[in-house]
């Protein structure tokens, strides 16, 4: 039987995935007395379907499950909610931010997913979809269902990023030897040619991956930083002039158990105690202290107590359902305990519930209805052009609101970010087509073929609108710098 390219390359990388760096210990379920251990009698998820409806990862399909924030909400933990809602306005004069950070465009970082394939179909065929006409996305991409390994695709992505004024990407990384890891050299080569830096988002690629956290960071730093002489690796300069790498991770600060709607209690297989996280974060800092006096390690959690106890420098909110009016309280909570914070520029999300039938009760007895369209929870009539226009305006409004709020909060006096000279805004996302959060251009609705329209895509009237909006906002921060050095071409 002929091997697919992905299987062949993954096989070649198998030897490279063997451990070559020190490993720090991680807790196991054999320590029931550990703080936060699952309660006695908690079940371990027994099947893939149980894992799915409990919001647990499925690494074989690059399914992340719930984030730390989502998991806390599901477990009814108070840290899963930001309680206060306060409106924040953009600073009257945004230019001091550009003056303080000459590399400001590199501090806006696109979340980037190198996981799409067309030989055979991968990711485009999630949820039973049958590409190329029927793809797992709320909208049809302008490029169609593409191959993430195609240099022409990566080149076009890099051009769009540059035209939007963004100077870095955060690669979704699923462990050594995974398809997303094998794509890194090619992505880095293209991004280097467009003066775009690269860093990494560590994903939940196995239940015990926390025990490999330090080892994984050392691999990324040495393989894609040191061996390439740091030609493309994102290094941020702090207020004292020191440079440091920055990494974000998904599903870090988790509850030890979750309860479903039937009252059954399940252990969370990838739960890691704060002390075991701390051994990992301390270990990698010690190993790298001759190269860097600091590393920025960010967790996707609102629990500032556990985030600090685990040795992370701060929190980075990934979830678009945590809205900008909630960020003021989160920033204050982080500042109160000396943590950094990063909030993402985003258009909301669109999980295409009308394109994905609900699971049968025997698969998910706790199904509570589709997530719907957000912001606002509306369910537009996608057959009406005025509804598509309204949905587009809602997304553009969220982009403006999130951009203004994150820049204002990170420039605010008296905060940890301001005191430590830290600014970083992830842009969620460039191409997460499954969630409808993408800034990568979609096809204009008018350009969809009759066959594509039959699949009910949510394509907007203007598929470039999100990227164009982002460029206008970036221009508002960096006009003086752009005038001095020559602005990138207009979208």
Quaternary state of this entry equals single chain
Instruction: State the shape.
Output: globular
The overall strand count is 15
- Percent of residues in helices comes to 25-40%
Low-confidence parts, pLDDT < 50 over ≥5 residues?
Answer: 15-35, 80-92, 480-485
Count of DSSP-assigned helices:
15
Secondary-structure blueprint:
Elements: H1 5-12, H2 48-53, H3 68-74, H4 95-100, E1 108-112, E2 117-118, E3 121-122, H5 151-163, E4 168-173, H6 179-182, H7 184-193, E5 197-202, H8 213-224, E6 235-237, E7 243-249, E8 257-259, E9 265-267, H9 274-288, E10 296-299, H10 304-309, E11 314-316, H11 324-336, E12 340-342, E13 349-350, E14 373-374, H12 385-410, H13 416-420, E15 425-427, H14 450-453, H15 465-485
Parallel strand pairs: 1-4, 1-15, 4-5, 5-7, 7-10, 10-11, 11-12
Antiparallel strand pairs: 2-3, 6-7, 8-9, 13-14
Helix pairs in contact: 5-7, 8-9, 11-12, 12-15
Explain what this protein looks like in three dimensions.
With 491 residues, the protein is α/β, with parallel strands linked by helices. The chain has a single domain, classed as Glycosidases (TIM Barrel, Alpha-Beta Barrel). The protein has 15 helices and 15 strands. The protein has helices at residues 5-12, 48-53, 68-74, 95-100, 151-163, 179-182, 184-193, 213-224, 274-288, 304-309, 324-336, 385-410, 416-420, 450-453, 465-485; strands spanning 108-112, 117-118, 121-122, 168-173, 197-202, 235-237, 243-249, 257-259, 265-267, 296-299, 314-316, 340-342, 349-350, 373-374, 425-427. The strands form 4 sheets. Strands 1, 4, 5, 6, 7, 10, 11, 12 and 15 form a 9-stranded mixed sheet that branches. A hairpin with a 5-residue loop joins strand 8 (257-259) and strand 9. Helix 5 (151-163) packs across helix 7 (184-193) and helix 8 packs parallel to helix 9. It starts with a helix and ends in a 6-residue tail after the last helix. The model is unreliable at 15-35, 80-92 and 480-485 (pLDDT under 50).
